[in-house]
Design goal:
UDP-N-acetylmuramoyl-L-alanine:D-glutamate ligase, elongated, eleven-stranded mixed β-sheet, seven-stranded parallel β-sheet, 2 domains, Rossmann fold, alpha/beta
Length: about 525
């Protein structure tokens, strides 16, 4: 059976506002208690929405097995079971624990499915679960309706065993609201978690479904607000916000007709030590391609000019003298330090001079490692730091796992400690300046190649040089970078994409969807 999901740009269907588990439950409660929407009606809508996805994505499926817990997630599963039975499918429910423990709306949905003749098998032991293994192996679709958003820690006992059984099944897996075992606050799975091909989440889009390891479990992520009034979302301030490139591009000011190279900023990339010149060249090229008027490279390497021969617009200088480096920093409007910087005494001196200048500064790669090792170095509010999880762990003096277990907490801690805008890279990149956290759902495994971070730092620096503030430059730069990768994947697949492949597409994506006119007439 085809495990793929309908080819659609599902990310555009996801809302901008993201919520944590507590907020999600508060919105559900408000919808029922204050707006007067029956909980049973929401459960029916959720089950119907899931069943429509089954019909749309796997129309040839005949055998479906639904694993239900005792909560509302299990109630959604019973709605799906009833609809599958009415559609003539061979459907069985595996109820973890006694079916008598179901209460409220979930119990009503169970009774309806039972009245329609849906077989309901109570799973009270590991032996009983093992007895259903052949069913799980022979069905076309498994529905995970075990655990909702309230999970704390790793699933235990029968639930952990059931999740293992789901993951061992060759069938496609649909997760109801969230894959069981995945924390919707953080995107971290403490223990066993269901690996679904499709996850359909309801009412509130949960932030943890879009960052960290979540993509290993959610598969394609879809959202359904279940028809609740939009005023519901005024009750809770989102915990974070999802970025969309189109909205960011709309905020980018048009370039005036009288623009010249001097008015579009001067980026100085500091790095490219011996053997690592390519990193600085990639960052500098990216800065130029997003529109910086002038771009220079200051490097301790004798060969930096040779490595930039294919981009003659770049002004490359071998610099070993402090006074000469200070002069170059003084002439620049924005600094990008770190790509190929190395860990030498020159590297530390260059970083100190860059930070002490007080100029807008993108700090990446080797500069981040030096920063984490040198307590006397201080960032400032015009800095953008772009760590990946390992670099973040060094900055926070913790393990990489500690960063990934709660990326939201990690980015907040770095902003508070360092006083700069932080771009925490990785799946579901997080960006914050201390006011709000924004999340980037674009990008993916195609970006797993060397030099990607160098290009990103150059893009952000190039945007800052043109007058974008640090937060906006970080948001737009990261969105352009990830969206370019997604666009390449459409034609080239996920393997073998190089960092420099992104630069032409970044330039294309950056163009505004309207003609630049005289200032004031856009």
């Amino acid at each position: 059976m085809d495990h793929s999901v309908l080819d659609s740009d599902y990310r555009t269907q996801l809302p901008i506002n993201l919520y944590n588990a507590e907020q999600s439950r508060a919105l559900d409660h408000y919808a029922i208690q204050t707006l007067g929407i029956a909980g049973l009606l929401l459960m029916e809508r959720a089950g119907l929405s899931c069943f429509k996805q089954i019909e749309a994505n796997w129309p040839e499926a005949e055998r479906i097995t639904i694993l239900c817990g005792h909560g509302n997630n299990g109630g959604d599963g019973y709605v799906i079971a009833a609809l599958a039975k009415l559609a003539g499918m061979d459907v069985t429910v595996l109820q973890l624990g006694s079916r008598d423990k179901m209460t409220g709306d979930a119990q009503l949905c169970q009774q309806r499915a039972n009245n329609l003749g849906v077989p309901i098998c109570e799973i009270l032991s590991g032996e009983a679960l093992a007895g259903q293994q052949s069913r799980l192996e022979s069905c076309d679709i498994v529905v995970d309706a075990l655990l909702g958003t309230g999970i704390s820690g790793a699933p235990r006992g029968l639930y952990a065993q059931a999740i293992q059984a789901i993951n061992q099944s060759p069938a496609v897996v649909l997760a109801v609201d969230t894959p069981s075992g995945l924390c919707v606050n953080t995107g971290w799975a403490e223990g066993e978690a269901v690996k679904a091909q499709l996850t359909l989440t309801f009412i509130a889009c949960k932030q943890g479904l879009l960052t960290g390891a979540a993509a290993n479990y959610t598969g394609t992520l879809l959202f359904d607000d279940l028809g609740v009034p939009q005023r519901l979302y005024l009750q809770e301030k989102p915990s974070s916000y999802r970025l969309e490139l189109a909205g960011l591009l709309f905020r980018l000011p048009a370039r005036p007709p009288t623009a010249h190279k001097g008015s579009c900023g001067h980026v100085l990339v500091i790095g490219g030590a011996e053997g690592m010149g390519g990193a600085a060249v990639m960052a500098a090229t990216a800065a130029a391609r997003v529109g910086a008027g002038l771009v220079s490279i200051a490097s301790p390497s004798e060969t930096i000019a040779l490595q930039a021969l294919n981009q003659p617009e770049l002004m490359c200088r071998q610099v070993n003298d402090q006074a000469e480096l200070e002069a170059l920093i003084q002439r620049a409007s924005v600094l990008v330090i770190g790509p190929g910087l190395g860990q030498s005494e020159w590297s530390l001196l260059a970083l100190r001079l860059a930070l002490d200048s007080g100029k807008p500064c993108v700090v990446d790669a080797d500069a981040l490692n030096l920063f984490s090792e040198t307590s006397s170095l201080k960032a400032h509010s015009l800095c953008v730091l772009t760590p990946h999880p390992k670099e973040a762990s060094r900055l926070l003096h913790c393990s990489t796992d500690a960063v990934q277990k709660d990326r939201f907490k990690a980015v907040e801690s770095m902003v508070k400690t360092l006083g700069a805008t932080i771009v925490l890279k990785g799946p579901g990149t997080l960006i914050s300046d201390g006011e709000n956290i924004s999340l980037l759902s674009a990008g993916g495994p195609a970006m797993a190649s060397g030099g990607m971070g160098d290009v990103l730092s150059g893009v952000i620096g190039g945007l800052m040089a043109q007058g974008c503030d640090t937060l906006f430059a970080a948001q737009l730069g990261a969105s352009l970078h990830a969206s370019a990768a997604d666009k390449l994947v459409e034609n080239k697949g996920v393997r073998g994409i190089l960092a420099t492949d992104l630069i032409p597409l970044i330039q294309q994506l950056l163009q505004k969807p309207f003609v630049v006119q005289a200032e004031g007439r856009e």
